[in-house]
Amino acid sequence: MRKLVFVLAAFAAAFSFAVAAVPAGADPGNGAVVVNDLACFVFLPPVIGSTTDSHTVVTPSGNTVLICHFDLVNPTGEALVFDNFLCGTLIGATTDSKFVLSASGQGTLTCHINGQT
Question: Is position 96 within any domain?
């Protein structure tokens, strides 16, 4: 059974807004687009939770990194690490992913999406 992480639909609205907010005359193809505070949801049993403490960078070539920070209840009381699970965003999906959760419940999700090669 594959584990799955979703970045919620707020990503599309925030990303569209960030691109539309580029001033007239600026060429967004020459620099990265940075979007903060997107909704992230993690479902990696026994860990389930959501946050808007996130940071996304999309380069002109489409390479993307998504980082979300969580403050969750860790039901195991032990540090947990999940690697290479399906991380889905509206830009694309990847298994180049990692989720680390401390014993105290501080979690970090990182997903890398490769754009054009």
Answer: yes
Q: Measure the CA–CA gap between 84 and 77, rounded to whole angstroms.
A: 23
Q: How far apart are CA 18 and CA 15, in angstroms?
A: 5
pTM, to two decimals:
0.73
Question: At 41, is the secondary structure helix, strand, or coil?
Answer: strand
And the tokens for 7? 């970045």
Domain encompassing residue 106: 4-19+30-113
Tally of structural domains, the chain? 1
57 belongs to a structural domain: yes
Residue 108 lies in a domain: yes
The predicted-structure confidence for 4-50, as pLDDT tens digits, reads as follows 444 433 333 222 222 222 333 334 556 888 999 999 999 999 999 99
